């Protein structure tokens, strides 16, 4: 299976480096993406849009020979959902890593402080305590050293979706910051932020208790959860 790994804000394809080997040993073809404007800290990203990132994932889908699985972390989940909307017949499953599908008109996060046309990684005090579980001082230093400012438009452009066949694409939610039972409760209560998730017909939940960046804090367990979502090799 072709696995397309879509990173969240501030991360490039190398953020998956501790997860990829286990996926490849299981026989999968793994494609960790570096999205437009995220090639280096010095890249010109001021003009990059959310649609540019979605189109990059769609291009990767089109380059694969058969069905693909999208794995989207954080804001990469919204991008993966839009790519599944663009190619619902080509996506066998979307795996959301501490993320979920973003509905039409929603934005990834318009509260992140911007510096011109880009979003530097904020101070750790910007994040909730649950985000930072298991992210010790050494991992924080590593992540900050490797972080790349994200294009501001990616976080603030409205999501645009058009094909309701996206609701037929099976989904796995890898829930990290809070138990999946809590997420299920939000869905059952009709909470607005999970309205798009509630419309998906086939959803599986997996708990991976850690903070918002399991590819750094629990990479082996994250790889195991992804493989479990894929089923037998």
TrEMBL record:
Q: Which of UniProt's keywords are assigned here?
A: Hydrolase
Which GO molecular function entries does the Swiss-Prot or TrEMBL record give? hydrolase activity
> What Pfam families has UniProt attached to this entry?
Abhydrolase_6 (PF12697)
Domain called AB hydrolase-1: residue spans: 3-225
Superkingdom of this entry's organism? Bacteria
SUPFAM superfamilies annotated for this entry?
Answer: alpha/beta-Hydrolases (SSF53474)
What PANTHER family does its record include?
Answer: AB HYDROLASE-1 DOMAIN-CONTAINING PROTEIN, AB HYDROLASE-1 DOMAIN-CONTAINING PROTEIN-RELATED
Q: What name does UniProt use for this protein?
A: Alpha/beta hydrolase
**In which organism is this protein found?**
Prauserella cavernicola
């Amino acid at each position: 299976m072709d696995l397309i790994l879509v990173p969240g804000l501030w991360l490039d394809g190398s953020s998956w480096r501790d997860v990829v080997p286990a996926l490849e040993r299981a026989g999968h073809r793994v494609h960790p993406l570096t999205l437009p404007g995220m090639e280096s800290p010095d890249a010109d990203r001021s003009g990059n849009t959310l649609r540019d990132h979605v189109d990059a994932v769609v291009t990767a889908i089109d380059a694969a020979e058969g069905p693909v699985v999208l794995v989207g972390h954080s804001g990469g989940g919204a991008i993966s959902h839009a790519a599944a909307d663009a190619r619902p017949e080509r996506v066998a499953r979307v795996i959301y890593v501490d993320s979920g599908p973003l509905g039409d008109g929603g934005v990834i996060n318009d509260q992140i402080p911007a510096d011109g046309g880009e979003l530097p990684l904020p101070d750790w005090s910007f994040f909730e305590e649950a985000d930072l579980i298991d992210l010790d001082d050494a991992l924080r230093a590593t992540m900050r050293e490797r972080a790349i400012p994200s294009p501001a438009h990616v976080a603030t452009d409205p999501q645009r979706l058009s094909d309701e066949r996206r609701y037929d694409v099976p989904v796995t939610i890898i829930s990290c910051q809070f138990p999946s039972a809590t997420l299920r409760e939000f869905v059952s209560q009709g909470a607005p932020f999970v309205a798009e998730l509630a419309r998906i017909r086939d959803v599986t939940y997996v708990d991976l208790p850690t903070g918002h960046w399991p590819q750094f804090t629990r990479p082996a367990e994250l790889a195991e959860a992804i493989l479990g979502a894929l089923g037998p090799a």
